[in-house]
Design goal:
By secondary structure, the protein is α/β, with parallel strands linked by helices. It contains eight helices and nine strands. Helix 2 crosses helix 3 and helix 2 runs parallel beside helix 4.
Amino acid sequence: MRAPVSDLPLVLDNVSLQAGATVILDRLSLAIAPGAPTLIIGPNGSGKTTLLRLCMGLVRPSAGRVSWGGRTNSAPVRRAILFQRPVMLRRSAAANVAYALAQAGTPRRERTAHIANLLERVGLADLARRPARRLSGGEQQRLALARALARDPEILLLDEPTASLDPAATRAVEEIVRMAAQSGIKIVMASHDLGQVRRLAGDVVFLVRGALCERGPAAKFLDHPTTQEAAAFLRGDLVI
């Protein structure tokens, strides 16, 4: 059963984050509402991963305010995060999902059915008994998605989930992401792949040096960027 509270809209109000003298995010204001996937792009070191961690509530801003559905309590009630290299537990694929369900508070009597459903959803039903650490990289990433979906999230935060995958594995992960978005889950995803942005994004957040440089609908951003930095990035130029 879904919790009655909502984590949307997710709002960052003039948020900055510093590590010593280094500014990682700089006075960033951003509102994320229900709808098609929001993809976060930008040069390496632009703050994409840190932004996702802030959205999850894993780190606190040095200044500014983050709120979820109007609440500033960072407890991840309706959100889940998937990192680029997820850690697989030393147990079967099914047991990895069972652990995620237990952590999410799913009653024990309901877990078997949920495990089967989630593994089917990510195309791993035939590998339920295989040790998770013996799965291929793409299969591990799909299993990590099943674990994230076990939380029944309203917001799913993804940190370049296809960065090290081949085209076939990338397609499989993208299809899971697309189906999750169609089911009503808000996807917020960092990516380095402009083709992926065109395939998945409803809107784009473009970061440069930890600041919001441009935001807009994906097609408009990709075809008609409004800033010099975005135009240079889309051409493949170095943006420093």
